[in-house]
């Protein structure tokens, strides 16, 4: 994919955030690793106003390389993750409502659905509270997700970060994270959620990772 | 309906799954019996990318007969159901959120709405846990639904299967299943759900089956 | 409004039912008084397939006068209401989820919102259980709504009927009924709903009825 | 912005109310300060029927200056706010469901999300009950919001008012208010919401106010 195509893809993927109910107004953003740099949403711009040219290119310390707009205020977090997790090619950040409700309880989302075992390989972990502005949030994301099966983390009182080999994979994780956060929330309200056995979780995760989809 | 029309119809019916909020990303699928074989969604393809040609034709042991894509990973379940329930012409599988919340509680959806008595003739039963991969899920669906009034079953910690004489009828059951799962969930939250008398359920089911709609 | 316009309006109003999330699949219907007769949705037809010509004209005992399709299975209820409440020009019936959740608890929706005092003048009453098929449902609607401020009633384990001087007014009541049913449901979940004083309800209802809107 | 543009903008902003799920039928309205006067939605007109010409111009005692339609029945409230809060350039009023659910409990929305600290600088306060018709509601809004960080207030048993330097800023506050009202509601249902430390709230609010977005 060339530079122009990457900008176009990133812009198109951003439209999936409001379409899937993951964001409100200008919150939420997606980035793509681009060689030694990254592309990310500009700060405070509405999703319908995004264009391929408006995407901001920064180095992996979030210093702007190209563009006239300021990068997302989450750029330092994205950059930190790319620096410390070399297999990550795309990152999504949202405050999607059900996942964030679990985060406001500082509570991991328990793995009680086969679809969750497939996609996340277990619970979606909840990281501690970290303030925006420096590298605190990125450090917490990396600390928890490094070596973890789950491509998603919720952060206490904050929201969701998802990672993937590509921005599209990270987007899928963000969409599925909210989906299971909602279903497990609803299940919890009914009062008697049944656990999934660890061996079943392992078996489902293995199968989904190795068999599902087109080869 | 000829072969081309069946593929077109199956593709169009798949669009109803996201439209009715029953699926997320690539999850969920519909199949149609096609003589001694069946047509089913390809695995891991998004709903907007489906075309009539992309539908996979398999025999009733889920072995591909036509097409270049892999069939849905649920194909073995669909095939098992067609083999064991000869009146079934279409099957729908989803992880629709409210129905799946009941399933995560391993709890049947109680019949407390006249619309539910009409369509399901009683509670929507909950089957036991079964792993994907072989015929376990299909066997559980057939064990529970054979001779049952309900065209829908929820499976513990998993999701929904619905059956019907046609794919469209199975789709209707999937849409109505989520609808009543939601309303009964909400009713349950209010804390004092009133039962429907069995004689009223029987009377409503009989009337809906024999009088409703166009003759 | 001539006969053609009435059929067109009734068809257009039906599209508002799915648009406002009040119906699923073919459930729900609207009727309009038409002189000594009424026009009503045909039974079991999806909303997108409705045409002005498909609307069924019946007398006020629900016997078909014009059209080739069968009238809604709720036609006898609508007809009964028109016969007994001469000021009613339009009727809407839905199973909208939040209102029906209250109905499954056989519990009136308490008037705890100024918008509800405006529109309904107090709680939305809940009628007793009645079986479809004869005049039982219509009789229960008339018994409760005759002389009542509320243009909406919920029926135990069933759903909603709303009335109005026109089909559009009845539709507005159906939309607002679901809206307040949802907000009061949510308020109830927070655990400490505050009552509205009867004098405030009376004052709001009086003002809304006599001052609101264009003269 | 000239007079025509202001009318066009106000009309366009009104379309965001149903699009963001904040209003039902004709409820809800937006106004814009226009010199010594204000422009506001006409009373009882549906959002799709609004045109730039239909917006009503009144003085800051809600007396009509231009237009043939009656102004919103909330005009006196808007006018009062403009008179008493000179920095306010736009006002939004809704009965959005989650925020109104908190209002029906006479309960402020606690600040337990970083996004809420950003936008509101603390809890969203709940004002006392006030009847429509005179200046009571406006007086309550001004009493609570004057000098308050939050641009949003919920009013007991009623709904939401938001203010901003422009109508668009007030709209953003209304959208974000419902968003956080929903997430905090969901968090509350899980039963163990974690507080945000006041120092973190202060730090987040300061950063968002001074660093976020484009300079």
TrEMBL record, chains A, B, C, D:
Keyword Zinc: yes
GO biological process, one term: pentose catabolic process
Catalytic activity: L-ribulose 5-phosphate = D-xylulose 5-phosphate
Domain Class II aldolase/adducin N-terminal: 8-185
InterPro entries: Aldolase_class_II_sugar_metab, Aldolase_II/adducin_N, Aldolase_II/adducin_N_sf
Cofactor: Zn(2+)
The EC number(s) this enzyme carries: 5.1.3.4
Top-level taxon in the UniProt lineage: Bacteria
One GO CC term, this protein: cytosol
Keywords: Metal-binding, Zinc
Stored Pfam families: Aldolase_II
GO MF terms held by the record: aldehyde-lyase activity; L-ribulose-phosphate 4-epimerase activity; metal ion binding
Family as reported in the entry's similarity comment: Belongs to the aldolase class II family. AraD/FucA subfamily.
PANTHER family referenced in this protein's UniProt entry, alphabetically: FUCULOSE PHOSPHATE ALDOLASE (PTHR22789), L-RIBULOSE-5-PHOSPHATE 4-EPIMERASE SGBE (PTHR22789:SF8)
Protein name, entry field: L-ribulose-5-phosphate 4-epimerase
Organism lineage: Bacteria, Thermotogati, Deinococcota, Deinococci, Deinococcales
């Amino acid at each position: 994919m060339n530079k122009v195509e990457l900008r176009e893809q990133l812009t198109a993927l951003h439209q999936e955030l409001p379409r899937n109910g993951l964001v409100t107004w200008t919150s939420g953003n997606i980035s793509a690793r681009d060689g030694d740099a990254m592309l990310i949403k500009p700060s405070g711009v509405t999703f319908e106003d995004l264009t391929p040219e408006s995407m901001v290119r920064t180095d992996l310390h979030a210093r702007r390389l190209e563009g006239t707009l300021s990068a997302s205020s989450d750029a330092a977090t994205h950059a930190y993750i790319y620096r410390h997790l070399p297999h990550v090619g795309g990152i999504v950040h949202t405050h999607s409502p059900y996942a964030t409700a679990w985060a406001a309880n500082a509570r991991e989302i328990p793995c009680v659905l086969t679809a969750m075992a497939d996609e996340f390989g277990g619970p979606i972990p909840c990281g501690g509270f970290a303030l925006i502005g420096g590298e605190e949030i990125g450090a917490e994301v990396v600390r928890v997700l490094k070596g973890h099966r789950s491509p998603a983390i919720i952060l206490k009182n904050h929201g969701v970060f998802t990672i993937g080999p590509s921005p599209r994979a990270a987007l899928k994780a963000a969409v599925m994270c909210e989906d299971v956060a909602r279903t497990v929330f609803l299940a919890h309200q009914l009062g008697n959620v049944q656990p999934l056995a660890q061996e079943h979780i392992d078996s489902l995760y293995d199968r989904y990772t190795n068999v599902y989809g087109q080869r």
